[in-house]
Amino acid sequence: MIIGGVAVLVLAALIAWPIGLLVWANGKVQHTAALSGAANTPGTTYLLTGSDSRADGGIAQDGTEGARTDTILLLHVPDSGPTALISLPRDTYVDIPGQGPAKLNAAFAWGQAPLLVQTVEGLTGLTIDHYAEIGMAGVEQIVDAVGGVNLCHDVDVNDADSGMVWTAGCHDVDGVQALAFARMRKADPTGDVGRAERQRQLIGAVMGKVQPSQLLFRPGQQVSLIDAGTQALTVSDETGIVDMAKLALAFRTANSAEGITGTPPIASIDYRPGGNAGSTVLLDPETAPAFWVAIRDGSLPPGPVGGMPGA
Fold first, then answer.
1. What are the strands, taking DSSP E only, across 181-279?
2. Exposure on the CB side of residue 265, measured as CA atoms within 13 A
3. pLDDT of amino acid 307
């Protein structure tokens, strides 16, 4: 009888803990008005950004002011077909509504999330269903909450701007080192393309440490991880904790062998259109439109896409 009572209590705890955690986490999520209200397109599309106020040369180069975003990711779950995680280089040359041609991350500087969402929708033809923004300092907290991650880079690096000091190979790193790994650009000859690859590697490494079956029996780590994530995270008004859970699952799928990761087709990583734009990334005008249609429809095969021009 005692054993039966204990079993009931354990079962009740296992059921009540996730529900209580869900309610607690949902109340901690920060929200912002971000979505455009554009007509829906097939599938579910998430726009994810990393907001970083620390200057890395971009502000002086293109003349914009205000908040910056060094990380812009489009995650698309089609109605059928592979889930895709596409890095949009922050220096992509685009038309920004009401502003004209400029670098993609200038949209965030000029109009925060709403203008960035509109700009990405114009670029891709995909309506954004959910928006999520993480403060880059939050990357440190999340990596530390999962106990660090293992990252790989095949060259030595000593980059003063990002703080990345690296000996070629794979290393276990903490949050500070992981953030530098994700931010480094100037010491990489592939620029934004290389940084995007490292950012996706970091995302995959974090997701690999967050195993639901293991977290179930580590309530302390659950609390630490959710606390770190929700403090650093701002999402669109229409997005709740369940949507964020779906987002996490989509991330995991995109980073698996069944998913698609990479960049859109790039024509040049040093396109100089003149004016105050400086050096920009030019998407291939011939192939990019069809690429976005294929991402929307889920018709691309799984695997890597895009990358350096001619690679």
1. 233-236, 260-262, 266-271
2. 14
3. 86
Query: What distance in Å separates the CA atoms of residue 193 and residue 38, rounded to the nearest whole number?
Result: 29
Q: DSSP letters along 39-81, please? A: PP-SSEEEEEEEE--S--SHHHHH---S--EEEEEEEEE-SSS
CA distance 28 to 16: 19
Using CB atoms within 10 Å of the CB of residue 297, give its burial: 0 to 12 exposed, 13 to 18 middle, 19+ buried: middle
Q: What is the reported pLDDT for 242?
A: 78
Rounded CA gap, 180 and 164, in Å? 5
CB neighbours (10 Å) of residue 268? Answer: 14
Question: How far apart, in whole angstroms, are the C-alpha atoms of residue 85 and residue 256?
Answer: 11
Q: What is the DSSP code (8-state) at residue 187?
A: T
Contact 243, 224 (CB under 8 A): no
Which residue is it, tokens 């455009």? 36
CB neighbourhood size of 202 (10 A): 21
Please say if the pLDDT value at position 92 is more than 90: yes
Residue 111: what residue type?
G
Longest CA span, the chain: 81
**Residue positions counted in the chain:** 311
Give the 3-state secondary structure percentages of the chain, helix then strand then coil, rounded to 5: 45, 25, 35
Do 226 and 25 form a contact (C-beta atoms < 8 A)?
A: yes
Determine the pLDDT at residue 56. 34
pLDDT at 267 over 60: yes
- Residue 270: Cβ within 10 Å count: 12
